[in-house]
Amino acid sequence: MDFELSEEIKAIQEMARKFTQNEITPRVAEDEENHTFQRDIINKMGELGFFGCPIPEEYGGSNLGFLAHTVVTEEISRVSGSLRAAFNMQTMGTAREVFQFGTDEQKKKYIPKLVSAEHLGCIGITEANAGSDVSSMKTRAVKKGNKYILTGSKNWITYAQVADVGVIYAYTDPTKKYKGMSGFIVDMHSRGVSTGPTATKMGWNACPTGELFFDDVEVPEENLLGGEEGRGFECVMSGLNNTRLTAAAGAVGVSHGLIDEAKKYANEREQFGRPIGKFQMVQEELARMIVETEAARLMVYKCAVQKDAGNHGNVLETVMAKYYSCDVASRVADGALRILGAYGYSSEYPVERLFREAKLYQILEGSANIQKMIIATDALGYRKANR
Ligand SMILES: Cc1cc2nc3c(=O)[nH]c(=O)nc-3n(C[C@H](O)[C@H](O)[C@H](O)COP(=O)(O)OP(=O)(O)OC[C@H]3O[C@@H](n4cnc5c(N)ncnc54)[C@H](O)[C@@H]3O)c2cc1C
Question: Which of 89, 105, 152, 264 to pair with 351, CA 20 to 30 A apart?
């Protein structure tokens, strides 16, 4: 077991850290406040190869792997949850999904443009009445000649208003339940695709989220993911095993960002004639935040290393890392708020924004309860998590 990052990963980590300091930190608060979608920053991240780590070179990636992806995601999330989302929209939920399940033609056509950010991606699973229970989705795709006709709607879709291409899940045969679901690569500029207003949210405001409507949208049969009907549920679950890693890395990143702010403040703020960092109760809070974040990081890195070693069925480890790191992010946010006192509650300091960003991780990519359910049902022998 080697706990050192390789020189290559350290180099991309350093690049991401500098990029964050120079390009994101100076404007993140204003962009969040104004709900400005940061397309220009996403373009630059694409140019720097941030979205291509777990993608082979022949499709425009760097093949640096899942650990590199995790480390870069963590750096960006340290200052921006909205930009962290791009790692699932451009990489894990789209490019990597097409890489794992797509046909050769689909891989060649779609992956390079997602990795470079020339195209923005989105993932369409959730619907108004299908959240944790993915199988209750209602969107239908009916084959007509050499096309599928897509009808239905999706809810809470990140990049709904800006995406060029979507990996959208629908039932091709609802009578077969899980085995009747299929994935489609949809051109989001097709006739019949429309979006609702941007959702108003607690945070992540520089990242648009909303509803998608499919009104008799014609999808060419060659855009059926993998060229085979009935594999949609398998694709969703396998995709979640990747997107959960990115979410977990994001949770570690936001925890790190909150610790950065809490440390700075504890050294600056004086009460009773000395910096508050000198008080043992403040130290205890900070120590807990640091240790829990480090434990979460190790769990997240373990999953990434397993995937780099070819173990893509590591559902249990991924779910545990996602559950733990996301819960830790909320506890760390709470600790940072306590250390900053009134200024933690003020939007003049980043803690107030990072606190709001941290909360989302307990919901996204499967709620905390769903992660716990998978862990416990595996432990009790009801359903094996790993494949
Ligand atoms: C900002 C944002 C961006 C998003 N982006 C996307 C996206 O790009 N694409 C996409 O497809 N989706 C997206 N989502 C949706 C997200 O994946 C869902 O919100 C999530 O899966 C949970 O579904 P839900 O919110 O409907 O909660 P529900 O399923 O309604 O759950 C509500 C509560 O009930 C609990 N619960 C439900 N079932 C069980 C159970 N069996 N046992 C115990 N507890 C249970 C849950 O844990 C939760 O606490 C996004 C959501 C948000 C907020």
Answer: 89
73-107 pLDDT, tens digit per residue, is: 999 999 999 999 999 999 999 999 999 999 999 99
Structure tokens at 237: 């679950």
CB 229 within 8 A of CB 221: no
Its pTM stands at: 0.97
- The CA distance from 259 to 262, in Å, is 5
pLDDT band of residue 1 (cuts 50, 70, 90) is confident
Residues whose beta carbon lies within 6 Å of some atom of ligand 1:
122-126, 131-132, 156-158, 201, 204, 209, 360, 363-364, 366-367, 369-370, 373
Which residue's CA is the closest to the ligand 1 atom numbered 45? Answer: 369
The answer to whether 205 and 80 have CB atoms below 8 angstroms apart is no
Helix axes 315-340, 368-379, angle to 10 degrees: 140
Radius of gyration of the chain (CA): 21
Distance from CA of residue 370 to its chain's centroid?
Answer: 17
- Ligand 1 binding pocket mutation candidate from 91, 132, 212 (most atoms within 8 A of CB): 132
Nearest to 309 by CA among 4, 67, 101, 107: 67
Domains annotated on the chain, with CATH = 7-119 (1.10.540.10), 122-230 (2.40.110.10), 234-379 (1.20.140.10)
Under a CB-based contact definition with an 8 Å cutoff, are residues 12 and 72 in contact?
Answer: yes
58 is known as an active-site residue:
no
